[in-house]
Specification:
44% helix, 6-stranded parallel β-sheet, alpha/beta, Rossmann fold, binds uridine-5'-diphosphate, 2 domains
Amino acid sequence: MVTEDILPRIAILMAHTGGGHLSAARSLAEALETRARVTIISLVDDYVEFPWNAMSVAYGPWVNYAPWLYHLIYRAFASRKRVEFTYRAAYPLVRREVSAAFAADWPDIVVTVHPLQTQIPLRALRELGNPAPFVTVVTDPVTPPIAWFCPDMDLTVVATEPAKQTAIECGVPPDRIRVLGLPVRKAFASIWGRAKPAARSQLGLDPERPLALLTGGGAGIGKLLPLARAIARRLARATCGAQMAIIAGRNQILQKQLQSEPWPVPVKVLGFVEDMPNWLAAADLLITKAGPGTLAEATCAGIPVIITGHIPGQEDGNVTWLEQHGAGIYAREPERVGQLVSDLLRPDNPLLAHMAEQSHALAHCDAAEQIAQAVLELAGRPGRAVTSAPVRHPTKRNLTLKEWMGGLYDNR
Ligand code: UDP
């Protein structure tokens, strides 16, 4: 029997910016369950100090109300040099806390599923003298921001060939890149082919009414209120007799607004749900922003998608990925979305079933298992040294300008 102590210790780095990184971390932890001792760590939320630790709280409002600013930053960092410069500038400011996290939980392997926890933790780990292999699992499938890629990683896992190309352009050696898909939990893989009425009954919904499921990722992003109103108005006039469930995620203001609406059709309003597989199993159609985690889960479940928006830049490719394969339709305007939902849910419309097939054809339901195996193959193998000489930084937080500038211009 394998005892706990000889299992490799794997630290998975994620952050609560949205819900996708946590979902990816959980799906990998689930896949590794009996073969490793896994700790899920958020350096951003639980270790570093203000302003870095405000990132997760700011993410939802930022993307919701100032997507242009998000896009501007995405564009500004579309250069490897600028990304490198920023990481170098930030390193001396967060090094102590990041090192403390690794010193407390000395890992045998580190896996990051977050673009801002790549180069800095790798460098901190090596400066501590820990040679553990370091793996990046990129959770933006098609157009990932450049910040994800670090040539010193032992392995970089991407979901598609275009993402692999971006990695190569960022200097990641091709023999250290694997295209394995986006990790999702096992429960999503068993949805395809299951009877929907039973799944709806289980959730306390009317089993006979088709279900339109509306979500906005973990942070409840997107114009969910006007969208929900327009969809409900259309469904009230349609013959399909459909019902709607709206998942507001962590957006409590939105949840309250939705709960106080007088809906003309049966509507269930929820906050952050832990049983997303059950909701996808019950749904006939998903209406969502182009969040990579949600879309990957929808493809495993074989659910057609109406994409109502996307985070400019990093989610651009997700929209075309689904549209080109006939698994999704992009529509932003609430009235148009309402019309599409009522058309697709019409009992005599064959398009819904066709889109469901197309959606399922895109799925990589076993990606988490494949990534887990690739990670375990690295166990016991010494990690690659960071290609530069380690820099000596003061351990105190009150850095002098000179010391900080030293870190900034350190020529790695
Ligand atoms: N999610 C969840 N419960 C909720 C809302 C979302 O578990 O109430 C999960 C969802 O299943 C998906 C993730 O959060 O795995 C959202 O990730 P995505 O990449 O779609 O968007 P993000 O929230 O990261 O912007």
